[in-house]
Amino acid sequence: MVYRPLRYEQMMKAAEGLDVRARRMFDGMAIYSGEKMFAYLIGEDIGLKLSPKDRRKALLLSGAELLRANPDAEPMKEYVRMPQDVLDNYDDFIAWVQKSADYARNAIH
Q: pLDDT digit string (tens) for 61-77?
């Protein structure tokens, strides 16, 4: 499975000004801010790495779930597959992308 170019364009537009770069990873595309990965694109899905607090909030959204790199894979525990409602609302999506990039850059793992 590969990522959709439309999702890549959406992510890069939402992440303008965040010093982002993209790199193929496994069957999708990893998005980095500086040296820290904060998003993963696979198929139609965009998964965002979120703090525990933001992850809990995101998982309450209808259609959100932990991201899987493929249907048989274990969930990526810190990455939430953003629901269609968020992907379709540019302002909401930008807000989630900002939270994700901030968490990835500032978190000590």
A: 999 999 998 888 899 99
What's the pLDDT tens digit per position in 39-61? 999 989 999 999 999 999 999 99
φ/ψ region of 108 (left if φ > 0, alpha if ψ in -120 to 50, else beta) reads beta
- Return the exposure string of 28-59: e unless at least 16 CB atoms fall within 10 Å of the residue's CB, then b: bbbbbbeeebbbbbbeebbbbbbbeebbeebe
Task: Select from 60, 64, 62 the least CA-distant residue to 48.
Answer: 64
State the DSSP code for 108: -
